[in-house]
Amino acid sequence: MTTQPRHDDERTRIREAMDRLLAGQPIASDGSLTVKTLAAEAGVHRMALMKRHADLKNHFYERVRNETPQVPESERKLRETVTQLKTTIKNQKAEIEELRQQVTRLTLASAVLTQRKETLPPPTLDGDNVIAFRPPIT
Description:
Blueprint: H1 3-23, H2 35-42, H3 46-51, H4 54-67, H5 73-119
Helix pairs in contact: 1-2, 1-4
Protein name: TetR family transcriptional regulator
Coiled coil: 75-116
Keywords: Coiled coil
């Protein structure tokens, strides 16, 4: 049962660190509004913050969004990644559509050539249109 006071002490330190960071008065960190910085500012391990105190982490990010015009670094990076992925998807969709159209055109051209070959009369060997080859040199 000794873990409960330590647990409460961690939560208190996290809340105080949250207030300092949001006020722009960090003591033990660089002041950026990230979970890593919050953990450093509170003097707790980052994984403890992520696992045992996930509610405080979520509350921190909610406060960052509501109380500051600054977007958290992790959210900014995720938004950039999402934008890049959306661009990639858009380009790939355009390329797929272009390839589908090319397949359709090639299929039609193949059908036309096949039909033309079947409907053309066999070549005639009139004397007017025959060109003699030179005999091979031995």
